[in-house]
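Quarterly update from the structural biology core.
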Amino acid sequence: MKVLLAPVGSRGDVQPQMVLAEELERRGHDVVFATCPNFRGQLQARGFETVAIGNDSDLVLRQNADLAEQNPLLALPRQLKLIADETHRQCTELLDADLPRFDVVVGAGLSFAAHLLAERQRAKYTFICYTLSGMQSAMHPPAALPLFWLPRWGNRVLWGAVRAGFGFSVGAVLGKIRQRYGLPADRDPWQTVHFSNSILAQDEALGSLPDDLPGPAVQVPALVRSTESEVLPADVEHFLQRRSSERLIYVGFGSMPTVQRARVIDAVSAFCNAHSARALLFSSHNEDESFTLPDTVLRVGSVDHARLFPRVDLVVHHGGAGTMAAALRAGVPQMIVPHILDQFFHARRLQQLGVGSAPVDKRTLGRRLLAVSWPAIAEQRRHAEELAKTLMPSGAPAAADHLEALARGAASTRR
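Predicted structure, tokenized:
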């Protein structure tokens, strides 16, 4: 089986596909990636043929960092404009690429060209979603409009608004691309991209597939590595081994750039002083280089969360699906500081499960860290450790099973 994985977006969109790719390769299948150019080197180093499409997603995030500081309702129009502009380049570069024929094409994240290629090649297609909040249902609001107090009819209105906005912005671009490449017109591009055939790759502890989905779907556990894969850097290991009775936390916001990084550093430093604690502080954009950090705070880059998280007392993060899944498997309490989209949904759900605190507004991070209650954290850890025992190590085998069945025309889905 020859498979094209076409995740477009941040590292959180690409890393789960790497886990899936490794499982497919282990089974003897050929895997090719089509993704943002900033991931090409990493994927090629792991032996995967990679076609670069679209812009450098890290650069786009840094250039539009202020969107993560805005109210989600106010940020949505500009987000749609950015996505529409990116979609045109993504589509033309993928459709113009010299590619072999694929049996299965997989989209994820902001991948809106993948379906066009599958249609052109008459390949099977599926879209992988990493969050229940991305699955259209009256049971919850869309990730882009996290208004959680509305009744079901209100959620339907919100989903209708998102679909209409998508059709007006991204759908218009896709329509022109279809015309240019001789593909038939599509009256409902949202449905075609997201719900022709979808996989929800998120643990059922966070919620199961609703009964009112607009198309066929299956659910598998989160696409995380089932074993520890990388040794921790020497400086991180040394920092961990220095620990005695001190509390230790991890603070990192994934690919989310921080407009006011000094605010984050001040909050973490004050927490360490007040709680006689230490902290590992992550930034994917080297935002801390111009700051002098206290001895109680260690600047870290990308590390294996499966190795690190079991050794800390609290994980403070943005609420990305991948980071959350790793922390759940580590049985460690979480404090979520949501920035955009599904992160607000995840923060609420972790609080409901008793494994996380109430969602934290970025502007109040300092106060919330100072107010951390260790007895409350101990109770959250108890719940987290119990929940961890119920989770499958990884959803990659189940996802690979589904793709194999899809290629044979025997896939079972739930409508």
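Residues 152-180 form the longest helix (29 residues).
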